[in-house]
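Sequence in, structure out. Go.
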Amino acid sequence: MAGQMIDSPRRVGITAVGSLLPDDVVPSDRLQAEVTGGGGIALPPSLLRQATGITTRRIAGEGVYSSTLATGAARRALAAAALDPLDVDLLLFASATRDMAEPATAHVVQAELGSRAHALDVTNACNSFVNGIDLARSMILAGRSRRALVVTGETPSRAMNRAPASAAEFRAGFAGYTFGDAGAAVVVEPVERGGIVDVDAAAYSEHWEVGGIPGGGSRHPRGDAYTYFRGDGHQLRGAFEKAGPEVVDRTLHRAGTGWDGFAKVLVHQVTDPYLERFAELTGVPRDKLVRTVPELGNVASASIGVQLDRVYGELRTGDRVLFVGLGGGISVMTMVWEKS
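Output:
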């Protein structure tokens, strides 16, 4: 397929979705007990639950990897579309976490599925999955692919520092305690009507140092301390509050509609207080949101995929859904999708 051009379609959309959650449910109070026991620091009772609004999260067990969750979600999406893995000619693993630095985790997923697609990784923190959908759409519109499978498998819980040596170390890694694990997948292909009708994005890269996992690259190739998430949650929230509403406003303006023009609004969810703040800043009605963060925590780029899977069956032809992605770096992304 790499050297073959295909007649370009006019419209491309999402035609099937799947998600997968690990079995292990970890309450925030249990996680806090583990953190205080491991590091020997004292914390106010129920601090994690009260500060984040997260009561539980799913944690991938031993032998469950990013590729495991992505593959399971992919099988569900393919089954929902009544497709065989060989019906896919583009496979994008679009995730903030992966199995290893090299090779691309897309190849691990492909080997498990038994597909023979052009396979590669797409990574842009918590915007990876929405970026992957956009890239798949672009390649189909360009005549480079007929049908794509976009998958994510997120295991950010493994970047939690579960034994902080001091209160300062706990604060530096606090955002990491919001994490949960999940996988999601969508089939992207030509459609007769609707589909992905608008995409917008903005990057505020001057904030790239505000938060992230510094290890594994050429700056810090080794050292366990660099494998933990670290960052300033207040600075991250402040950057998103400045950037997010502007991109959303532009999208609404181009759509020529208010919030009543969308059946659902799927927003990347970090904590429950931040989701409430997003609603205040943008004016989105709460009943348009699909609230998952209290139950699942921050599942990174899988957040929007899991939300979409939960509402996909209740959407009718012609319903429009707004995706709002937020990612470290800092990046903001919107996508308007109409169910075909």
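Check: The chain has a mean pLDDT of 92. DSSP finds ten helices and 13 strands in the chain.
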